[in-house]
Amino acid sequence: MAKQKFDPNRTSFEEGIARIRQAVKKVGLKVDGGIITSRDSGIPELKKILGTSNVPKGFQKWQLPVFLACESQLFITVGEPLAKSPRHAHKGGDGVRFIASGSIIYEGKELNAGDWMFIPKGAPYSFEVGPFGATMCYCY
């Protein structure tokens, strides 16, 4: 079988959403209003299902099982070691927090570099930065 040529625009936004919905249903993950992290059960299976071969040689790529169906903004946050974010909610829309370096602790789960969490609009949460600090990317 011939390897297909890399095309980063192969899937439309709508096709991507349909793909996510189908995969989430197959695994039985509840995504209705709750916070989801890369450390939750079912995510390793979803990572396999949502993997794609549409990448250049030497790369791996998979789709997260969540999406933001709105215009969005991207922020970088740097947290000092053991800093605490008080319980709060984002009223403007859903968001995705990606841990670029260091770690945060959310509900007893340590999210390390490469981990992520999806926060639905209005869902209250808090977290603590790990002992070495954290650099995060937050999109909402």
Describe this structure in words.
- This protein has 140 residues and is of the alpha+beta class.
- It folds into two domains: 13-62; 74-139, Jelly Rolls (Sandwich), CATH 2.60.120.10.
- The protein is 16% helix and 37% strand.
- It contains two helices and nine strands; from the N terminus they run αβαββββββββ.
- Strands 1, 4, 5, 6, 7, 8 and 9 form a seven-stranded antiparallel sheet that branches.
- A hairpin with a 2-residue loop joins β6 and β7 (109-112).
- The termini are far apart.
Which helices and strands occur, and which strands form pairs?
Layout lengths: L12 H15 L8 E2 L5 H7 L1 E2 L8 E2 L11 E6 L4 E5 L6 E12 L2 E4 L3 E4 L5 E15 L1
Antiparallel strand pairs: 1-8, 2-3, 4-9, 5-9, 6-7, 6-8, 6-9
Distance between the termini: 40 Å
What is the multimeric organization of the chains shown? single chain
> What is the CATH class designation of the largest domain?
Mainly Beta
**How many strands appear in the DSSP assignment?**
9
CATH domain topology of the largest domain: Jelly Rolls
Order of helices and strands: HEHEEEEEEEE
Helix content: 10-25%
> Structural class, please?
alpha+beta
Arithmetic mean pLDDT: 89
Taking the sheet with the most strands, its summary is: 7 strands, antiparallel
The CATH architecture name of the largest domain reads Sandwich
Query: How much of the sequence is in beta strands?
Result: 35-45%
Instruction: Note the overall shape.
Output: globular
Per DSSP, the total helix count is: 2
